[in-house]
Prior knowledge:
- The complex is a heterodimer of chains A (291) and B (277).
- With 291 residues, chain A is mainly α.
- Helices cover 75% and strands 1% of the residues of chain A.
- Chain A has helices spanning 28-58, 61-70, 72-105, 111-123, 126-137, 144-149, 158-169, 171-184, 187-194, 199-228, 231-237, 247-256, 260-290, and one strand at 8-9.
- The longest helix of chain A has 34 residues, at 72-105.
- Chain B has 277 residues and is an all-alpha fold.
- Helices cover 78% and strands 1% of the residues of chain B.
- Chain B has 13 helices and one strand.
- Chain B starts with a helix and ends with a helix.
- In chain B, helix 7 (112-123) packs parallel to helix 11, helix 8 packs antiparallel against helix 11 (214-220) and helix 9 crosses helix 10.
- Mean pLDDT of chain B is 90; it is low at 1-10.
- Chain B is globular, with a radius of gyration of 24 Å.
- The chains are: A mainly alpha (291), B mainly alpha (277).
- Chains A and B meet through strand 1, helix 1, helix 3, helix 4 and helix 5 of A and helix 2, helix 4, strand 1, helix 5 and helix 6 of B.
Amino acid sequence: MEQSTFIQQVAPEKNNAATKSVALQEPRFVRYTLTFIALAFLAFFIVLPLVSIFFTAFQKGVDVYVAAITHPDALAAIKLTLTVVAIAVPLNAIFGIMAAWALTKFNFKGKNLLLTIVDLPFAVSPVIAGLVFILLFGSQGLFGDWLFEHDIKIVFALPGIVLATVFVTLPFVARELIPLMQTQGTSEEEASISLGANGFKTFWYVTLPNIKWGLLYGLILCNARAIGEFGAVSVVSGHIRGMTNTMPLHIEILYNEYQFAAAFAVASLMSVIAIITLIVKDIVAWKSKSA
Amino acid sequence: MSSLTVNKKTRRIIPGFHLSLGYTMLYVSLLVLLPLSMIFIHTMSLSWAEFVNIVTAPRAVASYKVSFSTALAAGLLNVIFGTIIAWVLVRYRFPFKRIIDGLVDLPFALPTAVAGIALTSLYAPNGWIGQFFNFKIAFTPLGIIIALTFIGLPFVVRTVQPVLQNISAEVEEASASLGATRLQTFRKVIFPELAPAILTGFSLAFARALGEYGSVVFIAGNMPMKTEITPLIIMTKLEQYDYAGATAIAVVMLVTSFILLFSINLIQWLANRRFVH
Lengths: 291, 277
């Protein structure tokens, strides 16, 4: 009888037998209501916004869409975003591996403090993340005079955008690797070292295969945030068209100029990246579970 | 005499301690600690009276109220709906469940600016959803709450989900066999186990909402005293090259976030201790 219902109850944990006692189930009315509420909420908050992006992007036809994403300013924004990501993500990946190695393979004083510091960027508003680099490298900043004398531009140029992005996405890889490497312990590495392998070989042949899915998972999250970062980059970019506008900033400009179709066209590109991120993330999560 | 320390050092077989720790310390010092310390150093250039003057200006205080109340409302909405979503995803079986489960993470993957313009056009007076309401949603605090709810949803779902998955069937069976109704089992057995996760998820969503900028600026309307959030005040001051003013407001935000972060860790620590005994 229960099999015929549309929404079935999953037994908690291992007890997956079809014979589930009535005492452990909610009445069918409750199950349907809860499922309806959950799906309706997700429809209004997640699915509808996503659909509206693509709908508005193509509202004025494919020509407008293609023109919007092949406009020189749009292409420059795409190129800048890719450049920033190509610098920021590998930097934070190397940092994440180093930090996870130090924090999980050894015991030292102040470990918890260091963990908290690694987490700090998550607790800081993106606007403040941008502000701190203005205070360091802006014209009134700590290094402002020195940079001016040596004709080096950091703020309102590529280096500033990269720095702000690195700051905002700093914890992602480390955050994925630390709990993973913690549970794996140190015995395999110790065995490898005592058999004569050097540190790098041990990392490459013993540790890396164990953490590859976690690393990939962290990289994907880091990448998604780096592509989409808006607040921090907005503060340090200076909004110079075709020069220091990343994709999200380009969307903002188009939107504020009431070029909605164009704004949503670029937004749809970023949404495709987001959807791919979700799919890859799901595959990686599934792989790491079965591995 | 020194044999003890030497012994301790040789026991550390795995190489790379100094390299990895040194690199990590250097990296966080240059990219996190030095930049963040600038906020506090720069504020020192203000006298105490000037500082108080800036951070208690009526427009700033109004923005704290807007930011705090909308983040709180969004956090509470997420607690209710996020817990229901987590429950439904763990306990019930329905079509397309895996895709729907994956979609919960969309707010993490979608750029905030994209979310901002999408939600604004949906909830604007002539938008797909906004047209069905005879009051304004976008460009009012309601709009801010909607954007912040979107941003915070995965935090609650993803902290509650694993805890719900790990509640063993035996506990519920024991409760039921002792005569408890389903509602009693939920209230007295399941909910107490979920509570720390719900609280953690709420704090994470709330902390994120307080600092959120990208999705809010489009939907808020940004009217001073009414729908202006605190990060926007910092932005406005920066555009006027008022670095001291922007930094003073940033200090207030940073201290609030640090207190929140500390409370989250405290909640988790207390919750873990409860189970370990």
